[in-house]
Amino acid sequence: MTCLVGLAEWRLPVSGVEAVRLAAAVGADGVQLDLGGPGRGHWVDAPGRVDALLAAAHAQGVRLLALAGNRFNDVGLTSDAATVRPLLERLLDAAVALGVPLAFVPSFRRGAIDGPDAFARTAEALRWGAAEAAARGLVLANENVLARDQARALVDRVGSTAFRLVLDTFNPVTAGLRADALVASLGDVVADQVHLKDGPSDGGSSPLLGAGEGRLDDAVQALHAHSVAVRALVVENDYRDGDLARMSTDLAWARRRARRFTPTEAGR
């Protein structure tokens, strides 16, 4: 399989079935969906929604790539187990229902890993979640802005082959890091779906891919040089303003870079 190019539902002007249709209309191969929840839109597993999404994906020829638990930005993996575990179970069960191989959770805002206690709580939550993911035949991944050694320590603490790190090409820049350097050190534990963006996640339109400060080509080259199995490049610039021309330009940029990955490198 060649490397796919996808979109992130939570960065689009529409959601749900309409996001799937939009992905097809602009020529994306697939879409990452969000679990939803309070302040995050409808729950993806609300009655009828999974069936509707599967039907739309089939009709439009669009792959459902992964399920994000962005609700964890509001709840925090650092919260108590009684809060975290039911939400992780809901995320993983919804991923199974949607037929996606990857579920991932962020560690920003309420769940920021900002000290030893937050690190320990996050590792414990992810260790439990990775075991649950493995039992379901899934991969669980975490998106964070930890430096190289801390990120490796997190992987070691989780201690599961069903756990990976989500690489975002711009978020590390906000923490004074470089995505290409992280790939060089952590390529063996990077999830096979990579987020491409090239500017701030809030506060206005993101720059076109390749036009910002993310050193995107360096990151893509590092993924190739270190033989990271990349199944999908997922464009995560912000298109909630409805600028479809900018979205199409970014997808074309990503498509050209996706050709660097051979079918073997593109994973399953």
From TrEMBL:
SUPFAM superfamilies for the chain: Xylose isomerase-like
Xref: InterPro entries: IolE/XylAMocC-like (IPR050312), Xyl_isomerase-like_sf (IPR036237), Xyl_isomerase-like_TIM-brl (IPR013022)
Superkingdom of this protein's organism: Bacteria
Gene3D superfamilies the record matches: Divalent-metal-dependent TIM barrel enzymes
Domain Xylose isomerase-like TIM barrel span(s) in chain numbering: 20-236
Protein name, per record: Xylose isomerase-like TIM barrel domain-containing protein
Organism the protein comes from: Actinokineospora fastidiosa
